Amino acid sequence: MSEQLGVAAGLVRLSFLVQSVYGEACEEHELTPPQAQLLCVLRDAPRGMAELAQTLRLEKSSVTGLVDRAERRGLVRRVASRADRRAVRVELTPAGETLAGTFHQAASQRLSATVAGLTQRDRARLAAIASDVLEAAQVPAVFADESAG
Amino acid sequence: MSEQLGVAAGLVRLSFLVQSVYGEACEEHELTPPQAQLLCVLRDAPRGMAELAQTLRLEKSSVTGLVDRAERRGLVRRVASRADRRAVRVELTPAGETLAGTFHQAASQRLSATVAGLTQRDRARLAAIASDVLEAAQVPAVFADESAG
DNA sequence: TATTGTTATACTCTATAACTATA
DNA sequence: TATAGTTATAGAGTATAACAATA
Fold this sequence. Notes:
homodimer; 6 helices; elongated; DNA-binding
C-alpha cells in the first residue's frame, strides 16, 4: 500500500498513464496521437482549418501540416467550401471513418481495462468527477463518449 | 448540465485537460513538456541514461537528445560514473534544480485551481481513486507528490 | 481591414539502425 | 556476448513570420 497522493500529483501521473494507454492504441492502429485526435474530432462532423486549430489547440500552420499528412495517407480530405471561397472543410474519407471507429473502440477498451481494478462504485465516481471538472473547464470534446450513461 | 460521460471518455478528456494545464506551466517556464518531465524525474535523484529511458518510456537515443538540449541550456549535466566507465549519471545543475522546483510548484497550483470547483470531498475521492489506479498500473513517479496527506 | 488558409523556416522530439567502448 | 551510451538519419509535430486570396 503506497501513500495517498495529493490531487495535483495524482492528476499529473494519471494523465501520463492515460496518455500512455492512448498511445498504445495509436501504435496499434499506426496513428500518431495528434492524428488520432484529428480523426476523433472529425468523427463528429467536418471542420474548417481554423475550427480545427481552436479545437486541437494548435496554430493554423500546424493544422495545415497535420491535415497534409493525414490526407496523404488517405484518411481525410479537403473539400472546398461553396459559401466562402477562402475556406475548406476537412472531412473523413471512408477509410478514415473506419479507422477512427476502430481506434476509438480500441482506446476505450484499453482505458476500461486500466480502471478494471476499481470497484464499480469508484469507476462511477471517477466518471462523475471527471465530468464535473471538464464541464467547468469548457473542454472541447476531443474523444467521443459512447457509454450507455 | 451536460450528460455524464463514460469512464473511458472521461479519462481521455481529463488527461488532455491536464496535459494542457501542464503545458501552460511549461510555457510559463520556457520548458517543453519532455524537458519538464526530465527535470521532475531528476529532482528525485540522478539517473543513468538507460534508467531515464525506462522511466520516461523513450528509446535511449531519444534520451541522448533530450539530455543534450537540457545540458546545452545549463539545466542538467552528465557526470562520469566511477564504478562503470561506460556509464554516466545525469543530475540537475543548481539552475536546473531551482527551475524544477518553481515549475513543479506552478504546475501544482494550476492543477489545484483546475479542480477548485469540486467539493473538498470529491477532490479527496479523485486523489484516492487516482492513487488506486496508479498503484495497480505500476507507473513511474514522473511528478512528485508534496501533499500533506 | 479582417479572416482563411498556406508557405518558408527552424527547432524539438522521437524512432531505427549502426556504432564505440566497456563489462 | 551483453550493456551503456552516442551518432546518423529520417520523419512527425510545432511555432513564428510572411504571404495570398477572399470577405
